[in-house]
Specification:
- α1 packs across α2, α1 (7-28) runs antiparallel to α5 and α4 (78-100) packs antiparallel against α5 (109-133).
- The protein contains 6 helices and no strands.
- The protein has helices spanning 7-28, 30-36, 51-74, 78-100, 109-133, 150-153.
- The longest helix has 25 residues, at 109-133.
Length: 155
């Protein structure tokens, strides 16, 4: 796989790799994943407790999402980068509300913060990349910026 070719690409790659690894962790060692998120891990689950089923589903979704993000980096799919900014901000909001309304433990706010900070980092990366690609922004002695796909050059 190629290394990211832009600042925004690096933010997407980091998130994608972590989503893939944390998804794999939840599939392989679900109890560890629950502890990381601040949830209780009882010695025995009551009948009708589908925590394991839900954790398997969400871990598989995280694993798949990591693959999608890494694929977007490999193809430098910048519209996807922009899309993730808005939806990661939505995720930040939903997870924060879950903590504030006592649906999730306080420690779960770390997940919300990760989403919010990731959205901001990608937005800053997109801004920086656009600034570097704008004509006339390089000064004497500056190296030329990396090429930006034609679909983004007009934006």
């Amino acid at each position: 796989m190629r290394l990211p070719r832009s600042g925004a690409g690096w933010t997407i790659a980091v998130f994608g790799l972590l989503a893939l690894l944390l998804g794999a962790l939840g599939l392989i060692w679900p109890e560890t994943q629950l502890r990381l998120l601040g949830f209780e891990v009882p010695a025995e689950r009551a009948p009708g407790d589908y925590t394991g089923t839900f954790l398997t589903a969400s871990s598989m979704a995280s694993f798949n999402m990591g693959v999608y993000y890494l694929l977007a980096v490999a193809t430098e799919w910048r519209p996807f980068y922009r899309f993730t900014v808005w939806f990661r901000l939505v995720t930040f909001t939903v997870f924060t509300i879950a903590v504030l309304s006592d649906v999730a433990p306080d420690r779960f706010f770390a997940v919300a913060a990760w989403e919010g900070l990731g959205a901001v980092a990608t937005a800053v990366g997109l801004w920086w990349d656009a600034r570097r690609a704008a004509p006339g922004t390089t000064g004497p002695g500056d190296s030329a910026p990396d090429p930006v796909p034609a679909t983004d050059a007009a934006r």
